Amino acid sequence: xxxxxxxxxxxxxxxxxxxxxxxxxxxxxxxxxxxxxxxxxxxxxxxxxxxxxxxxxxxxxxxxxxxxxxxxxxxxxxxxxxxxxxxxxxxxxxxxxxxxxxxxxxxxxxxxxxxxxxxxxxxxxxxxxxxxxxxxxxxxxxxxxxxxxxxxxxxxxxxxxxxxxxxxxxxxxxxxxxxxxxxxxxxxxxxxxxxxxxxxxxxxxxxxxxxxxxxxxxxxxxxxxxxxxxxxxxxxxxxxxxxxxxxxxxxxxxxxxxxxxxxxxxxxxxxxxxxxxxxxxxxxxxxxxxxxxxxxxxxxxxxxxxxxxxxxxxxxxxxxxxxxxxxxxxxxxxxxxxxxxxxxx
Length: 345
Prior knowledge:
Layout: E1 9-15, H1 22-34, E2 37-42, H2 57-67, H3 70-73, E3 76-80, H4 87-102, E4 107-112, E5 129-132, H5 141-150, H6 154-161, H7 167-176, H8 180-198, E6 204-213, E7 216-222, E8 231-232, E9 235-237, H9 244-256, H10 262-268, E10 269-275, E11 286-295, E12 310-317, H11 318-321, H12 332-340
Parallel strand pairs: 1-2, 1-4, 2-3, 4-5, 6-11
Antiparallel strand pairs: 6-7, 6-9, 7-8, 7-12, 10-11
Helix pairs in contact: 2-7, 5-6
């Protein structure tokens, strides 16, 4: 974008937009009304696909562009934004990205509507204006995704979605439903339904292990039905009679056959953090305690093998992880970054 020709009035719309519907369009159109240039920040942009984030940020961008006029396309920029486990860090990254696109001496206005607790971010951008928009459509992307991925017939689902999305979006979704990725997302959507039937409590406790040897980190490649082939911490559900550390050590041994003794692991324990974002897993409220074990460099990495409910156990150098962000299960990259500082601010 040529900043020398950039308008001094920029409007910002922020959202995951994991099915771009008329409610999102209301915000986008209002942004075009009040500014000469619009920056659309696409949240959760670098996460692996899951039932809550089935579309890549490139696909979200394509759906949005399909609804814009040629003139509006000349006036829009897109900013893909990763998730962080640290809200001030996320805020700083959004602000930096938007202000770089907007250029100097620009008046920036955030456009949004306050729907629930997920809208508190609207108050976090001091120095920017805020334009609240009245909600015209009582719809949400979660309900629309449930229709799209929950129907036995994609065409029937698209007919139901028709009043809630623009025709270009419907056409895009129709074409997308013919891709192999759609069948995977349908299978995972149904697996979540079955999981919630099996585990109906309001919340469950899980435990995970981050194992570091020198500058190498141990991850496991998951089997289905959730996050198949995605990389994750060794871990799983806590047994009713276990303490968190004991559960972490048990899962580590079951999934990787980790060869070092329990005593050596306990001595290597640096600390533990609680992963308690209510939306961290599409399966429901899973609260995990992540234990961080750190060993010094070794001439040879401990031999591991994937077993139980994982396909593979593998060591990765820390320098490899940034490029793998979209291959990680649920929030496991975010948690890794929080502890290991993988992404430079």
